[in-house]
Amino acid sequence: MATENTVQLNEAHKPQQASIDAFTSVLESVKEELVKVRRNHDKHEPEYFRAVQNLSDADLASFSASDLDSVRVAVSAYGLHLFGKVKLPAADNAYIHIRVFGSAKDGTDGENPDEREYKLHSIHTEEVIKDDGDRVYRAIFEKEDALEWFDT
User: Fold this and answer.
1) Measuring CA to CA, which residue among 42, 13, 26, 10 is closest to residue 102?
2) Please, which residues bridge with residue 70 across strands?
3) CA distance 79 to 39
4) Of residues 27 and 151, which shows the higher confidence score?
5) Which of 5, 41, 47, 145 could hold 137 in an S-S bridge, CB 3.0 to 4.6 Å?
6) How far apart are CA 69 and CA 127, in angstroms?
7) Cβ-based neighbours of 32, under 8 Å, separated by 6 or more
8) pLDDT digit string (tens) for 22-79?
């Protein structure tokens, strides 16, 4: 399994066409999953989505491929790991962090972008335990928040 310790992500950069194409191929599943994740968290810990609590589901998921702000990419023996920062255009300074996995299509080695298929791995949700034991939850990030490796 690829982990932060076994795979080296490149530096965050503006997405190139291959990353945009990969994101486009999973765009609808990202939107569906984002709405689903928000609904699930709103039942138990609405703080995750507090920054966009006033947005409808349609507004929350109103982003397009042109809202892919930056990416980080790593290659492992398993395939391509694409981490992306996506602007939520219906809110000020609101972004989600997504993780997409690309693997070789059957019968190919996956070397070329058109030989890969992509799946949404996850949308990042973060739980931070402060020194005083208090917990902070979020799924909505800001422009200045670094795009780092995540599993969830």
Assistant:
1) 26
2) 85
3) 31
4) 27
5) 47
6) 23
7) 61
8) 999 999 999 999 999 999 999 989 999 999 999 999 999 999 999 999 999 998 888 8
**In this structure, how many other beta carbons lie within 10 angstroms of the beta carbon of residue 67?**
17
Q: Residue 124, exposed/middle/buried by CB under 10 A (0-12, 13-18, 19+)?
A: buried
Q: Of the candidates 84, 86, 120, which has an alpha carbon nearest to the alpha carbon of residue 102? A: 120
Token code pair at residue 21: 């194409």
Q: What are phi and psi of 65, to 5 degrees?
A: -60, -30
> Which alpha helices (DSSP H) does 45-141 contain, by range?
57-60
C-alpha–C-alpha distance, residues 32 and 54, integer Å: 18
Pairwise CA distance, residues 90 & 96, whole Å: 12
The domain spans of the chain are 17-138
Strand 116-123, strand 95-104: pairing: antiparallel
